[in-house]
Amino acid sequence: MFQQVNKKEIVERSGVANNVAQNKNSDTIFQFVDNRPENVLQSNFREKTTQLKIQSEQPVVQLANEWGLNDYKQIHAFNDNLYENLPRSNDVPNMSKISAMMLSINKNLTSLNLPEMKVVEAKDLENTGSANFDFKTWKMQIDPEKLNEIDAGLANTLYHEARHSEQWFKMIAKRLMEGQKKEQIVSTMGVPEEIVQKAIEIGPENILPVEQKEAVTSFYESVYGKGSAHRTKVLLNLNKDGNYEAYKKLPEEVDAWEVGGNVEEIMDVDLISLKGKIMDTNDLNEIRNYLSKVEFLSEMLPKPTFTVESILKEKLNTWNNKLKEIEATSVEDNVHKFGDYITLVDKYNNLATRAKVPNFSSDFELEYRIMSKNLEEAEKLDEQNPNIWAVGKLIGYIKDCMIQYEDETSKPQPSVSTLFWCLSTTGEFVKQIKQAIVEEKEQELDSDSKD
Q1: Contact 331, 369 (CB under 8 A)
Q2: CA angle, corner 110, sides to 106 and 112, nearest 5?
Q3: Checking phi first, is residue 15 left (phi over 0); if not, alpha (psi -120 to 50) or beta?
Q4: What share of the chain is helix, strand, coil (3-state, %, to 5)?
Q5: What is the pLDDT of residue 39?
Q6: Rounded distance, CA 288 to CA 294, Å?
Q7: How far is the first Cα of the chain from the last one, in angstroms, to the nearest whole number?
Q8: CB proximity list for 396: less than 8 A, separation 6 or greater
Q9: What is the mean pLDDT of each run of 10 residues along the chain (451 residues)?
Q10: What is the pLDDT of residue 399?
Q11: 72-85 and 284-300 helices cross at what angle (nearest 10)?
Q12: Residue-wise over 84-115: b if at least 16 C-beta within 10 A, else e?
């Protein structure tokens, strides 16, 4: 797997691009550093190529990190498709959930011009675990009896096996580029004829870039060449001491374990990115959508960096501080801010239930003073313009609202919709009526001047 992303640093600076100034020989050098989670991870992709020294029986160069299924965008798309396609209900059979996972994998394979795989049940897979790519039939074999959880670990396994299908397809392309005929490849590699034909139709040079040939050659030598005897011995005796580690050091396995592991890495990085988006928005619908994805990822991962509850509590704490800040300002300022205030109280209380924390109790005294301010403004307006019917109605409505606050038996406070209309909209109505009066007088003056 990739080296662990510095998650603390990402959390502190997620979505932020910093200009870093460094002094070197008295000259200032400005370096643009992109700390978004996805770019931190992609940077690790590149660094890993130079840092990884594979301890194999044969020298091997890993596939270019940002090619094929190991591309960050491919793995991210796979995780997104899992969120869209994977049934959540416990009533859905595991094999149906596996099929949904394979649907997501096949979307990736199709986008890369690689052959899709069908899912088949195959019991007694022996040393191959719960899933196995069978290159002879080009199918994903699943042993239902070995399935424990439909989680990130299984997604890792299936993606690992899908990477093997990519390796084999590239090995086929390698043999075609070397001049072997279809019949020879089918015979020597034991792969389906239709898969070789697909490689011919796509064009082997379009399947295997020059920079990947050395890696694919090492895979081929491990499976079919000089390393095949060693590989066979390891796989047939997988449960003997030391052989499991030897298996993981096979060139094709080093690559596949790396790629499968990245599925879980990117799920965790996506969690960090989603948290940043939640903290950056006050849109309740956006927050709910992001939380739905957080819930899915945190349930899939064995040890998620964040959960719905932890993110919600941090978000609510931020809102709580904002609400207290508004309450501490003057009445005059709050008359203009109170629409935002009461809306934020509503959003807070919407999420508080899910976070299992108490609702936010707004400041009754502050609310009453703001209604008094609105009433005072409306009464002045009524004195100056006694013939405006709407002002009289507005005054009556504000007084009715104030009675609710004066009556102790009415507590807890009225509904949020009542608060919004009493405290915010009534103030806006006063402003709009004032403006309408001014505009009407201006029109009268303009009409008189024309006469």
Answers
A1: yes
A2: 120
A3: left
A4: 70, 5, 25
A5: 54
A6: 10
A7: 86
A8: none
A9: 37 34 37 48 49 39 62 92 90 90 96 95 72 94 84 94 97 97 97 97 95 93 95 86 88 93 92 94 95 94 91 94 79 58 83 86 66 83 84 82 62 52 66 80 69 57
A10: 84
A11: 100
A12: eebeeeeeeeeeebbbbbbbbbbbbbeeeebb
Query: What is the maximal distance between C-alpha atoms in the chain?
Result: 109
Q: Locate tokens 């005897």: which residue?
A: 229
Two structure tokens written together for 328: 């501490």
Instruction: Look at the block and give the residue holding tokens 């990736």.
Output: 108
In this structure, are residues 83 and 266 in contact, taking their beta carbons and an 8 Å threshold? no
Mode of pairing for the β-strands spanning 131-134 and 139-142: antiparallel
Report H helices in 26-142: 37-51, 72-85, 94-111
Q: Which residues of 377-404 are buried (b: 16+ CB within 10 A; e: fewer)?
A: bbeebbeeeeeeeebeebbebbeebbeb
Q: Give the DSSP letter string of 189-252.
A: H---HHHHHHHHHH-HHHHS-GGGHHHHHHHHHHHTSTTHHHHHHHHHTTTSTTHHHHHHTSHH
- Residues listed for the chain: 451
Residue whose entry in the numeric block shows the structure tokens 């399947």: 207
Tokens of 126: 């022996």
* CB-based contacts of 351-357 (< 8 A; 24+ apart in sequence): 351/284, 351/287, 351/312, 351/315, 351/316, 352/316, 354/291, 354/308, 354/312, 355/309, 355/312, 355/313, 355/316, 356/309, 357/313, 357/316
C-beta separation of 317 from 358 below 8 A: no
Answer whether 313's CB lies under 8 Å from 355's CB.
yes
Structure tokens at 252: 């094709």
Q: What gap in Å lies between CA 352 and CA 146, rounded to an integer? A: 40
CA atoms lying within 13 Å on the CB side of residue 11: 10
SS3 of residue 142 by DSSP: strand
Predicted local confidence at residue 149, as pLDDT? 83
